[in-house]
Fold:
Amino acid sequence: AISSGAITPDLLRSSAVAACRRSVGSSLNAFVSLAEPQHQPPVANRGQGSLYNFCTAGCDTPGLAGSATCGSPTLAENFLPSYTATSIIRLLDEGAWLLGKTNLDPFGMGSGCSDGLHGPVRNPWRSSPCSSSVAPDSATNFYIAGGSSGGSAAAVASGLAVGALASDTGGSSRIPAAFCGIVGLKPTYGRVSRHGLVPLVNALDCVSIMANTVTDACLLLNAMQGPDENDSTCCPERPEPVGWSDELAAGLKIGVPAEFSTPGMSASVLDTWSSAVTHLESDLGLTCLPVSLPHTPLSIKAYSVLCCAEVASNMARYDGIEFGLRVRDSENSVESLYTANRLAGFNSVIRSRVLAGNYFLLRRNYKAYYEQARKVWRLIKEDFDRVFQSVDLLVCPAAITAAPTYRDFVQADNRYRTSTMDLCTQSVNLAGLPSIVLPTGLEEGTGLPLAVQVIGPAMAEARVAALAASLESWARFPLLAESSECSLLRLLD
Amino acid sequence: RALLLLGPQRPWQRLPRHLCSSSSSSCGAADSPPAGRRCRHRLVPDAPTWRNVADSELPPPTAIDSDTIALLERLSLVQFDTADTVRVVAEAVRFADELRLVHAGPEVEPMTSLPEAWGWRCPLRADTPAEQPRTAVLSNAAETEEHYFVAPPGNIAAKDSGRERLDRLAEGAKSKASRSSRS
Structure:
């Protein structure tokens, strides 16, 4: 409709904004704040740039000047960032239209998007948020969107946004993408600047992308990637824009890592993985080889130590003096005020990670836990390095099951959940590798999305995207956004 | 700036070609699977490949006692607040105990960061001051006084939070742990 001129970009944008406005506070709970006019692309850029039809949402951790962040009481008041994340600036420069900030687990900690200040996010697959003919679910009987960037996934899956940003430290963009039936792209560590991203684990955090198609995800990546003088850990050279031709996918050697058949993996996820590998081998004639990443079972344990240790360090800045939540304290000492501020600002998940992190960093524990975790980190990375000498890409699951219900999910605590759900995702963060998750089927019975993950060597996004795009066209997954009444995708054609 | 995007178009209005059931292309009639068992690609393991690590292989579990609670609270300036938080931290430590089974000798160098492993330069900015308006710097502080941040006096140890509170937390966590292992 845009190309034929029947709908102008401005009409598209105002429809998108209206839909988002309706959705704030709705049961979907994807958006927590709407973008102000000053956040939109400068007038000169409008109607130009590679993203001029993109209505995007930003996860609540990349800072946006003038907009509060993080899903936690700590920063819910007394924090208006005066800076805007490089990733967002670059999207706006390309003409993308920012709709607002999306819901998430506090500071990105969690795999269910259930713990945030703004409440849990519903997986749009359970019921259509825009349709009034479907009776709403009860307060707890819905499927979770996954976390921590569940709001972004729900926004894209339901068609409220064409693309969205997320943060991925241990799987926080790929798990929700898998649960919500959309594409999740985690770039190589350092390919996209982290300037402005509220840090969880500096060594592992990646600004990641959610979109309904691999093509859209790559368009967003191309706009954002590249060196940034404000992020010293960014890649030193500008990467090539990600693009591919069909030939790029031909002749690739695919590795199937045995250790990604994990405890708790459902039969339907195994079937999904199997179908994808079968298609690559039998239909496309690609060589598929068994590979081994022997330290995989230890990865989640190493990740838990490294994550808690960095969290303990990164959360130390939230003392309420220069910014953030500050309570009235009768005792009037630094120790008592800081403790009181942090008790009020941090939920038990954050506090337990800080305390566990400091436990691992105690002099008496440092070698046995923290240094050991760093050694295992090295072994994990070397596993991947070795495997990519004999294959070009890995194909494996992302989430170990389809989306659970909220009621089931909250039966166990956050720590238990992340330790059992992130089994196929966090090792990719430890190795810093690029990964794309895409939906390839629906689960019998529940009708929930199931996904596969494509992992490549560092900076090999083009190769990963080529295979992901090939799987995408084979799968012909029925995007929820195409059926939703608020869908923007319908208007873009 | 030209984008080299020659990828596939969006899959509009098409039904899925397959729902998630096992693909039959890898199963010949001659090797039909046993009843109830799906036939998957030969490279996809049907069962988890992870070895179950028995509790007896691990070092004895650390109890988070009241001294440790006091130390961690002091270092973190974060309170445990409930016995449940103590339990969660104890479980986090137990979860990490498996790392101690790995024999990683001195030839395995602990990782510091990926950019370092990849040989990236990670340049630092020049050490020159950047002008910032004072109002911007102070704008997020809940309390300021005459253009200063306000912090309470330091070097005052927090009032002894009471041995009883710490002991109660430690005890509560222990009983939760033993209750869950009994069930």
About this structure: Residues 378 and 431 of chain A are 8 Å apart (CA to CA). Chain A touches chain B through 130 residues (CB under 8 Å).
